[in-house]
């Protein structure tokens, strides 16, 4: 687009706004749309996660929650029930995990989340993650986690959460 045509376009936009004001209208931005209630739920969940408030986090979970962590590392697998999910978050807290939401969208009972997730203690993992949350009764009933770089996640978790030697590793 040339400078002349840009100026013409901008002048046309300005004239349209002025015409609206002269006709008694107001030039205001559209009010922001309220998020889908399930998106709001996940936004509130991330606020509690960011505060490290495990008690508050537990209020977001259905009693029979299933949280699946893919990979081949000590924290991988499906956690079932609030206690197992909170134990997982306690372990993430040991590594100072942080999450910064990038994108949230809802469709029916599902919320898709894209976020930056990184460790601080030790630093070393900083990747994009995607989560699929299934919501039931205003609670998170299921979460399926997808790492943007599963190989990096596996290597980090093995370095950070080594298994105890065999005699101590197995339950009685």
From TrEMBL:
Endpoints of the signal sequence: 1-29
Coiled coil: none
Keywords noted in UniProt: Signal
Keyword Transcription: no
Gene3D superfamilies xrefs: 3.10.450.50
Every SnoaL-like domain range: 42-142
InterPro entries in alphabetical order: NTF2-like_dom_sf (IPR032710), SnoaL-like (IPR037401), TAT_signal (IPR006311)
Name of the protein in its database record: Ketosteroid isomerase-like protein
Lineage per the UniProt record: Bacteria, Bacillati, Actinomycetota, Actinomycetes, Pseudonocardiales
